[in-house]
Design goal:
The complex is a heterodimer. By secondary structure, chain A is mainly α. Chain A has a domain of 214 residues. Chain A has 21 helices and two strands. Chain A has a two-stranded antiparallel ribbon. In chain A, β1 and β2 form a beta hairpin. Chain A is globular, with a radius of gyration of 22 Å. The longest helix of chain B has 32 residues. Chain B is elongated. In chain B, α1 packs antiparallel against α2. Chain B has one domain: Orthogonal Bundle (Helix Hairpins). Chain B is mostly helical. The chains are: A mainly alpha, B mainly alpha. The interface between A and B is medium-sized, with 31 and 33 residues.
Chain lengths: 497, 120
């Protein structure tokens, strides 16, 4: 059991070591690809085990919980690990065509694998301090990836990214200190019971707020998102795709995990704040995107806006809303990573990402245009794509709670998303290239490795959209687990009296 | 003892926040370092303060002990924050050498304009 849990962590680390040793040879990139494929197999194995057992746990070093470091996988963790591996392999294939030899020599593939390991670890851990360590593993790898190649813009975005993330880490550590002082344990399952028994509930609320701010910075919610649009448009496209897909979602996952398992004592306060945060995040993100004129900057602001939907699902805290949040999380990772990958191909074909300087892709490469429409419409919530079901469930959940205004905001933001997507469509694909270029896919170097992941992710969006039922059922079970953590706690700690 | 530790944490945090708000690379790095010291001391104190005690559970007799877990946590946190500071110093230095300005709060294009304005 424990091997199934630890393999998705061991494989990327091992791959990172080999990729670092082979960084000067062409074998390095293939090592990364093979490692990602093996990692995908390992996470499928994890997923099928979890589907069979519901929750599985492993004690590292055989110290019994709550004393040792615990790895836990429930349905949400397992599916997040799986989707991380899917994004990982898509970006690893894409990197064959996108990452040049200079970046490879600087250790791109090793950093990428460490990043995947950090993200996976954060999803699998059952211990707060261990979560902090995985956050740091992930962050230090992402710092490296962000400034790799070292153009002035990249370093400038990097400074903001690093500073704000370090501040959030400090908040997180303060929260950990308080929680340990209060309960004497850091194991999530153990804390779940002990936090309710604490006399000083006021201090628990303070800790909840510290965690909300710390994870809020990582998830890029209003008003803590400013590092994201400042840095995500600067690194190479493979890097920004994996950032866009995974990094903020680790913050969202941490919020969902802690605010269902730990801080469910004062729902009236904490989740009302989350509800306001969700609304403002959706609106500011989409308005920010509306004024941008750069392909990647528009997409970066849309990450912020979409995070709002997931937080909204968490804040409502009904079974249907959590179902929506989980579904949205999965749909969003695939779609967002794919849009950044497409932006990369558009840049290679037309020479820029600034909307005014490019165009003409619809006429010369209709395949790319078609592949863009799938994730773009899915993001905006067109039926029958995956985004439609995600938005439908969340709006339905907020109507059930009679939060008419929030439902209206969610729908209006969807409409504004269409505006941004049509802007990209008109500028990048429809209008002729200002220099009269005819950017055709056939002239692209390494086009197979660039197009295959885009087509694969688009296909997944279509499958989720056309056959949503198994995915919705899965998200429903996962939401039920989040709302009733008893199986989680008994699996980790053994039967409770 | 409580008073000393509490005021140390307070002064370190205040100094850290002040330096962070200076918005230039070097003070920001120092500010983050001070803040992480503050949080390390705080984390250490979360296991309760006990003077002159060994961090081992006393198996025999009535001897008291100090909680070993926060010490292990602090050790990890110190190592990580040291590594982070090193990375930040490198990135900050790179930004300064590339842009010849060490403001952390504005965009590169705006920075050129502001710096010229300041020197004029």
């Amino acid at each position: 059991m424990s091997w199934v849990l630890s393999l998705p962590l061991i494989i990327p680390f091992a791959t990172a070591v080999f990729a670092f040793l082979l960084r000067n040879s062409p074998l390095g990139r293939w090592t990364s690809l093979v490692g990602s494929s093996v990692g995908l197999v390992a996470s499928i194995a994890l997923m099928s085990t979890v589907l069979h057992h519901q929750v599985i746990t492993g004690q590292m070093g055989n110290w019994p919980a709550p004393f040792g470091i615990t790895l836990v996988a429930d349905l949400l963790s397992a599916v997040m690990v799986l989707i991380t591996a899917i994004t990982g392999i898509a970006v690893a294939i894409y990197a064959l065509g996108d990452i040049d030899e200079t970046r490879e020599r600087l250790g791109y593939h090793a950093l990428f694998q460490v990043l995947i390991a950090g993200v996976t670890g954060a999803f699998l851990t059952g211990d707060l301090f261990n979560l902090y360590v995985w956050f740091e593993v992930m962050l230090i790898a992402s710092f490296g990836l962000l400034v790799l190649g070292g153009s002035r813009e990249q370093i400038d975005g990097g400074v903001k990214y690093v500073t704000l993330n370090l501040i959030s880490t400090i908040m997180f550590l303060t929260g950990i200190g308080l929680i340990y002082g209060l309960t004497g344990t850091l194991n999530l399952a153990d804390l779940s019971g002990k936090l309710d028994a604490v006399e000083n509930q006021g201090l628990v609320t303070v800790i909840a707020m510290l965690f909300m701010v710390a994870f809020g910075v990582k998830a890029a919610v209003f008003p803590l998102f400013f590092w994201l649009p400042a840095s995500y448009h600067t690194p190479s496209f493979a890097v920004s795709a994996v950032f866009a897909g995974l990094l903020t979602k680790v913050g969202v996952y941490a919020l969902i995990r802690t605010f269902t398992l730990l801080f469910d004592g004062d729902v009236g306060l904490t989740h009302t704040i989350l509800l306001w945060v969700a609304g403002f995040t959706m609106v500011t993100g989409v308005l920010g995107a509306a004024v941008q004129n750069d392909f990647r900057k528009i997409l970066s602001f849309h990450i912020v806006s979409q995070i709002g939907y997931m937080i909204m699902g968490l804040a409502l805290l009904t079974p249907l809303a959590l179902l929506g949040a989980v579904f949205y999380l999965l749909h969003h990772i695939i779609v967002k990573a794919n849009l950044f990958l497409i932006a990369g191909v558009a840049k290679q074909l037309t020479g820029s990402t600034e909307l005014a300087k490019i165009g003409g892709l619809y006429r010369s490469s209709p395949l790319l245009a078609a592949l863009f429409l799938i994730p773009a419409f899915s993001l905006a919530g067109f039926p029958p794509l995956s985004g439609f079901w995600a938005k439908y469930i969340l709006v339905k959940a907020s109507l059930d709670e009679e939060l008419w205004f929030l439902a209206f905001v969610a729908l209006a933001v969807g409409l504004m998303t269409i505006f941004s997507m049509t802007k990209i469509w008109a500028e990048v694909f429809w209008k002729a290239h200002p220099d009269g270029r005819q950017p055709a896919l056939s002239g692209l170097v390494g086009r197979t490795s660039l197009i295959v992941p885009i087509a694969g992710l688009a296909l997944m969006t279509m499958v989720v959209g056309l056959m949503p039922e198994p995915f919705v059922t899965f998200a429903e079970q996962s939401a039920a687990q989040l709302l009733d953590p008893t199986p989680y706690i008994t699996t980790v700690l053994g039967p409770q009296p | 003892m409580e008073l000393i530790v509490a005021s140390t944490v307070g002064v370190l945090t205040a100094g850290g926040v002040y330096l962070l708000l200076r918005l230039r690379t070097f003070p920001v790095i120092l500010g983050l370092a001070l803040l992480s010291y503050a949080v390390n001391v705080f984390l250490f104190a979360s296991g309760r303060l006990a003077i002159d005690q060994s961090p081992i559970l006393a198996k025999y007799g009535e001897a008291t002990y100090t909680d070993p877990l926060p010490q292990a946590l602090v050790l990890t946190a110190i190592v990580i924050s040291f590594g982070m500071t090193a990375v930040l110093v490198m990135i900050g230095l790179g930004a300064y050498l590339e842009a010849e300005s060490d403001r952390v709060d504005i965009e590169p294009e705006m920075r050129d304009a502001t710096d010229k304005g300041e020197s004029a």
